[in-house]
Amino acid sequence: MNMQQIPEAAVPPRVDPHTLMDDPHTKLRRLREDHAIVSFADNHVLALRAEDVFAAPTDPRTKQIDGIDYVRLNKIPAGYVARLFEDIFLFGNDETHRAKRGLFARAFSFQNIRRRQTGIRAVAEDIVAGLPRGEPFDFVEAMAARLPAEMIADFLGLPRLDSRYFASLVYDVAMAITPIYPTAMHDTIEAAARELFTYIADALTSRLKAPQDDLLSAIMVDWHEDPVIPFDSLVHQVIAVIIGGTDTTRAGFAMLVSLLLQHPEQWEAVQQDHSLIPGAVSEALRYDPPVGTITRLVTAPLEIGGFRLQKGTILKVSVLSALRDPAAYAQPDEFDIHRTDHPRLHPIFGNGPHRCIGEVLAKLEMQEALAALVSAAPDIRLIDVPTMIGFGGIRQITRMTTKID
Q1: Phi, psi at 358, each rounded to 5°
Q2: How far apart, in whole angstroms, are the C-alpha atoms of residue 317 and residue 328?
Q3: pTM over 0.85, yes/no
Q4: Which residues are annotated as a binding site?
Q5: The CATH number of the domain where 215 resides is what?
Q6: Which of 66, 74, 185, 348 could bridge 181 with an S-S bond, Cβ 3.0-4.6 Å?
């Protein structure tokens, strides 16, 4: 559409974001059928359709919202949480983003992660071997949370025994990455951010005094020789890596197993043919993803769905909606591990300069964990089906009760 034909006063229909928290798939589907875009507030909109959602991360008229704006828009009080989100590379752009992300680029390279495949499988098999038999247990706590936390501990060089401790702090801090900041939980989030900062700062400082053969030591030695960012900022970037490497994989893997167990024929197919596992992982991440929205800032006027968005508009793109869009996927509301219409690059990991740095690690963890589970516990049963809560940011998953006979 020619932008000159769009009325200046045209605004998308207004939606209360709180109404999307429950049963978001149904509500987003109904909105998407009639609207390409809806608004939450003045200059704050949500794009719903795949063509717009998938294009936004690389559209030169938008950029990643920066941390200062994120904190301001969410009215996060001054303190550890605010300083963390103002600084982490997840909410950065251009050279600042490249410098901070670059601290970890070599460690997260495809070749380096692939070298860890055997170790990932060994950790997964050890966890599966230790799962309770003959009694109900929470799968999220007993396996889905343990694997990414223990792997990121190994990856960075933190004690594996500390993984449960720092992961619990991460889960609290990750509550801040949501379209509706949980103000009532701020004290909990703030306390967790403060404790996590102290834990990582101490780990880095100890490696400057006594370097070890691990990633944190390598990062600290490089930083000491060329301190491109302040020490507090270095701590923040390590925390960002831990957040990205634990909470989303925890929810994603639990939902993967839940969906397969709800479709016994597909669970059995994966047992019989492990070559189906990568497709199963991709399909679970599409069907009920652990990340619901990505937030962009409009930097030059653009048009979506017949509406002109002015510079300065906060543009949330609903990955949750787009991954169920029939314009992008055949029969999108069906869970099908045999699906052949996945794009080459899975949209859940973003695109452009901000594509998830830990994508290869997350996929490999989920694939190896599923292979270990179907091999050693094929008779696991689902008792309580978990729910992924929320429509945006990092979504939370409820308890998932299972039993291995």
Answers
A1: -100, 20
A2: 15
A3: yes
A4: 356
A5: 1.10.630.10
A6: 74
